[in-house]
Write a structure and sequence with these properties.
single chain; elongated; 3 helices; mainly alpha
Length: about 70
């Protein structure tokens, strides 16, 4: 059938309708899970920014004139 709907088109449309309208609150459940994931991702990013750099890090000692002469 050129230009018409085949059985596969109807099956795909039927599956989409069942996903969208089947059951109670399927779309709101999916959107709620997505929102929770985004919120957790943002909190994870915030947690990394709040961590200060290591305070125990000390600068390397400068080379003395004796060490330079030995090299």
């Amino acid at each position: 059938m050129p230009g018409g709907f085949s059985i596969w088109h109807l099956i795909i449309v039927g599956v989409l309708l069942v996903l969208l309208f089947g059951g109670r609150g399927k779309i709101s459940g999916i959107m709620g899970d997505t929102a929770k994931g985004i919120r957790a991702f943002r909190e994870g990013l915030k947690g990394e920014e709040e961590t200060p750099p290591a305070a125990d890090a000390k600068p390397l000692p400068k080379e003395s004139e004796k060490d330079k002469a030995r090299s």
